[in-house]
Amino acid sequence: MLQVLGVVLFLVGLMISIGLHELGHMLPAKKFGVRVSEYFVGFGPTLWSRHGKETEYGIKAIPLGGYVKLVGMIPPEEAVKPVRSRGRVGRIIADARDASVDEVRDGEDFRAFYHLTWWRKVIIMFGGPFVNLVLAIAIFTTVLVGIGTPTATTTVDAVATCVPAAGQVECAAGDPPSPASEVGLQAGDTITAVNGAPVGSWVDLTTVIAASPGVALELTVDRGGETVEVLVTPASRVRATASGGTETVGYLGVTPTSEVVTQGLGAGVALAWDYTVATAKVIFTLPVQIYHAFMATIGAEERSSTSVMGIVGVGRISGDIVAADVEGYSPLYKLADFLMLLGGLNLALFAFNMIPLVPLDGGHIASALWQGIKNGWARLRGLPRPRPVDVARMMPLAYGVFGVLIVMGAVLILADIFAPIEV
Length: 423
Hints:
- The protein is an alpha+beta fold.
- The protein contains eleven helices and ten strands.
């Protein structure tokens, strides 16, 4: 039951995030005079809707997105250069243009989206992703500042008995004893200094240890209020690097305790930046990620723990968080983890929607910026204002991108079902 509750909470959080994203488009559009005929969260069959003054508001069955219909996004034929495309491509462009023109009420052409200045278009189209970015920063800040995060300390929680072989975590016969066990380090010891230099964090300590394979170090240890000096030589151990290679580092053989530590006000912004960079890297490698997810689905390879996940996988993790029955994992910590998951989802919505391809928001932003460049160039040359950018010409690309997104989403859903990531 708790697992189901976690999934339901995730879906509610997702729908709220999508709904606020669409509000980020709708509110500035209305402010600038554009008629917004529809505001829907979800796709597919309509579950509920009601009509406002000029906008239909509603919820649809499939929680994989949402949309606001901005009337007149595509300029009429007489406002743009003639389209030379024929055949299927020409029909797609013509049909999209006709549908857009039909949405404009008699006498309300001045309210069509295509009439807006380029910077107003940017504000409207960036409004949605911007809301997700703000939500992510707000959520991260709430958790990091208000609740805190588990942080490794310099107090020893456990001492390893051996130096495991490269790529292993468990001891095997023949593995040499760990340096920590040889010099008698104990659980509860707090390492306060190395060679007389204070260490304030676990990162400080491990940085020194990793850089000192085979080098004798003097550790200052607080053991039950008594100061003890320990001379230890970190063992050499091979580990993998982020670039796919290996390196030799020092190994002591201790694991730290952790405590919940609150962060400063800027921590939420810093984490949002780190997530954005990481998400951008995933987006750049998305075709490769989808390929490996597909191969894992058909059993041709193992699903990587770093693989990109779809809505099913993220929903399962949300359910696992709520249903987890682990000593010390209080409801407050569950809430923190759930909120961090929701914040990461909003960051992903922000980064993904900024891809400069229609029908994504980034594609429409790029179109508006191009209009601004054209207008500025014409003004410098003393020429009349150029015709509006013809969004209809982008419709064949938009349909292609939309089809690719559907395929990728389906692959990730199947991968999450048949080859789930173990976390």
